[in-house]
Design a protein that fits this description.
With about 270 residues, the chain is an alpha/beta fold. The chain has nine helices and four strands, in the order ααααααβαβαββα. Strands 1, 2, 3 and 4 form a four-stranded mixed beta sheet that branches. Helix 2 runs antiparallel to helix 3, helix 2 runs parallel beside helix 8 and helix 6 crosses helix 8. The N terminus is likely disordered.
């Protein structure tokens, strides 16, 4: 029996509905980034979202467009302000005389400029990430089943954010029942959709082996979730290709035990 290509793709990779949704969503957005004048790709990405959500979300297509536009405008404003903060950096570095003691004034000016820009960028990207999470909660028809926190990890947590970071984060939750896990899984995927709609994620970042050589995406990565590939994926659902899923939907107690293990086991 011969299957259509899409069915062979689903069968061969044994992927979950979550994986299929995130990868299909990334593919349509990547096509849309190549042909932004085509309305069809916008509609296709929205259909993937609705297919995943089913009755979990009531957003309309026009609301989807307006939300995407608003989030992208906020990201663009952050990038523009970061660039505006660095007009004098070339002049400062030209004063460096390599091989000689670094002039204290030049060094101080350089460090202050970078520090000020990094602090601004970290605060601004944290605010944008918080908005994405708030919008994601508001999009879902059900309220959170328990108290939780979305916690940044990686460069954003270290205060080293750039306007093109890959967002790493986890959910700290009070309840890990089946119902709660389903909700936080849906919330995580919803946040991935909102970030994916920036159209700044290369397909290679999404680990779609079936498209290698078929659809080489040469665009550079921009703002995105952490990489979906083996050994990576510091996001609530994990990297979706390893055996452990939802690794970063965790109770505070479990997180504490994991940290204790890292202090007792050699690498």
């Amino acid at each position: 029996m011969k299957f259509p290509w899409s069915w062979k793709f689903i069968y061969a990779t044994k992927i979950t509905h979550i994986t299929f949704s995130t990868k299909a969503h990334a593919l349509y957005n990547s096509c849309g980034a190549r042909k932004p004048q085509s309305e069809g790709w916008l509609e296709s990405t929205f259909k993937v979202q609705k297919s995943y959500w089913k009755d979990k979300c009531n957003i309309t297509y026009n609301q989807h467009l307006l939300l995407t536009k608003s989030l992208k405008e906020e990201l663009t404003a952050i990038r523009n302000k970061c660039r505006a903060k660095l007009p004098d950096i070339d002049g400062i570095t030209k004063q460096f005389k390599l091989g000689e003691p670094l002039d204290d004034n030049s060094a101080s000016a350089f460090v202050s400029l970078i520090k000020d820009t990094t602090i601004y960028c970290t605060d601004a990207m944290l605010s944008l990430s918080k908005r994405i999470m708030t919008e994601s909660v508001d999009l879902l028809t059900k309220q959170p089943p328990c108290s939780f926190n979305a916690v940044a990890i990686g460069s954003l947590a270290r205060g080293e954010a750039t306007p093109y970071l890959d967002l790493e984060y986890m959910f700290l939750v009070d309840d890990k029942s089946t119902e709660a896990m389903q909700y936080f899984e849906n919330l995580a995927i919803t946040s991935y959709f909102l970030m994916g709609n920036f159209r700044e994620t290369k397909l290679s970042y999404m680990h779609i082996d079936e498209l290698k050589g078929w659809f080489d995406d040469k665009a550079k990565n921009g703002f995105k979730i952490d990489r979906l590939a083996p050994g990576t994926g510091n996001i609530p659902t994990g990297n979706l290709v390893d055996k452990i899923q939802n690794y970063f939907i965790v109770t505070p107690e479990k997180l504490s035990r994991r940290y204790e293990m890292t202090t007792e086991q050699p690498c």
